[in-house]
Design a protein that fits this description.
The structure is a homodimer of 348-residue chains. With 348 residues, chain A is α+β, with helices and mostly antiparallel strands. Chain A is built from ten helices and 13 strands. Strand 2 of chain A pairs antiparallel with strand 3 of chain B.
């Protein structure tokens, strides 16, 4: 579907391991004073002084987490970084460094890895982080990317998942379900393409949702905004697996219950429209779709005036005593227990 | 060859992602005061106070870095951790935390992952490190392990690769080539097994070299010993790719040359004997074999009295001006330029 206009194909075997890493990382610059030594020794050396250090790691596997038939490698590199940074922001921390390891089969030429690293580089620039290390090796099949993100945060600003209290407001940033519906559109076009390889998909009506799937952003702006508004959430998590699953994490770790109001769940009009087209319930998509990389957090009610006028935030419910359970309150005012859709990777 | 006596096979699909991680990591304990928050939030939180932070990462891929037909999963888990810790020790630092991510295909039952994590746990206990995070996902083919090791070190103790000076002595710990010859023995037995599956290999004469391959150790003791001897190396690296390649790294990054004396290269008698059996030159094995995980470092000559009586250390050469080049001085006193064997993974 996405044609590769790059006709050059340099086999990876033309370079040794060290030459490959050097080639792929030569454009990366070190910006943080906390990075004392980046790539090029047995290990990187960092200096966080009196700040706390935050570490998160993710593994992305071809055919499980991404499909290269519609995911350009540059976007993949960008997304792989962003997904990790999102976890650091979810601690109310600032990401400062990443390590990137890839396993890649011989079917990828050097130019493909250059595209991947171009996306990684763009992400490091936009989010102001240093690439400080990694590993590059061959695999027998596809592409695998392992990223570890490191960040810093002042002690009193760290926000865990376990600090929510009954009566705290449940707040979400942005809107939900778009990345999942973007994936549905891309999967549909892939099937069309299989039948008729000459068809050119018109993705124009789906620009927003496809972009949310292919080029998500982590909510760096929200961490800054919360600081400006002088709001420290009582608990926080990023939405990677779907709203429902993340609410359950906050509730279980904070030992509280929750009422989530269906009518409050923020949906972009494009999501509502494509859900109608696909005959899928938009609430189900928002609850279980995942890959939104929005932030979900709780605040004490006294902080409500600070956030209420802000279009970045939507209050979608409130926390209760644990015994009352976790519920979705539907538009028809019935109460349905929240369920985590769970993890389907091993059920293929 | 190594029979799996465990007849239980629980499909991974019986557990969700969170249940799987929880199950596999439930025995791990947090020991370090620098670990404020381990597994269970969006990211781990660490506190290194005024110490510097060291970060290293490695990716191990089935059929590229290990062969499960003779590598028991418990040993693999242990080795995967040790390989990473070795990089941290090579900075003269103390490893404190690791993250472990694995991608695994459906052909592995839960019991196999339990074995893998049992090995990881043993390593965390022996080396006194905390498991603070990771990711578990499915893969379409084999097993892949990505580990990031984090350590701490006082500013003035950090040893880089680039500090060697002309006339510094080149020192190596332990002995070299055993892990590579252990691999040759295991590969040979695998071929025998293919032809005659009833054959029981007698690995007894090869105990030392097979153990060096299957269960290597990182030189934690050397970091402690160097401190006790009050020796801070001028440069240091661990030997993962072979002595020759690592010497070249030290020389290039330090902008010096080197004379390496063939007769000084430490070899275990078992290595010499098996090299004769395989008709391989033992110097070639020591230079290019790799996976020794010994430490290679340089010290200024005035520190020589502090290390000379110690059986852990062998002086194998000395550094020179860069213009003189990097040479192996053979037993016959001819000078051969050192070459890095390079990286063969992509040449399959």
């Amino acid at each position: 579907m996405i044609e590769d206009k790059n006709q050059e194909r340099t086999p990876l075997s033309h370079l040794g391991e060290f030459a490959l890493i050097e080639h792929l990382t030569k454009n990366f610059k070190i910006n943080h004073t906390s990075t004392i030594k980046g790539i090029g020794d047995d290990a990187a050396v960092l200096n966080f002084k009196d700040k706390k250090v935050v570490v998160s790691t993710d593994l992305l596997v071809e055919s499980v987490h991404f499909d290269l038939s519609y995911m350009p490698l540059k976007h993949l590199g960008y997304k792989a970084v962003v997904v990790n940074l999102s976890d650091v922001y979810a601690m109310n921390a600032t990401p400062t460094q990443i390590t990137v390891s890839i396993a890649v089969s011989n079917r990828f030429p050097l130019e493909a890895l250059e595209d991947l690293y171009a996306g990684i580089e763009t992400a490091t620039q936009i989010y102001n982080i240093d690439l400080i290390g990694g590993d590059t090796t061959s695999s027998n099949t596809g592409l695998l990317i392992s990223i570890t993100a490191i960040g810093e945060v002042e002690d009193q600003k760290i926000v865990y998942r376990n600090g929510a209290k009954p009566n705290d407001l449940l707040v979400v940033t942005g809107d939900l379900g778009a990345a999942y519906m973007g994936l549905q559109v891309l999967e549909r076009e892939k099937e069309v393409f299989k039948v008729n390889p000459n068809s050119q998909p018109d993705l124009e009506p789906y620009t927003y949702i496809v972009e949310r799937q292919l080029k998500p952003e982590a909510r760096k702006d929200i961490i800054k905004l919360l600081e400006e508004l002088n709001v420290t959430p009582t608990s926080m998590i990023d939405i990677s697996d779907g709203l429902s699953s993340e609410i359950i994490h906050l509730c279980k770790q904070s030992q509280v219950g929750c009422d989530l109001y269906e009518e409050k769940i923020p949906l972009d009009p494009a999501v509502i429209s494509v859900c109608e087209e696909f005959k899928i319930d938009s609430t189900t998509v928002a609850l279980n779709g995942g890959e939104d990389y929005e932030l979900l957090f709780t605040i004490s009610q006294e902080d409500y005036p600070k956030i209420k006028a802000n279009p970045n935030f939507t209050v979608i419910g409130f926390m209760k005593e644990a015994e009352t359970g976790m519920h979705l309150v539907t538009r028809a005012e019935s109460r349905i227990p929240l369920k985590a859709q769970g993890w389907k990777n091993f059920n293929n």
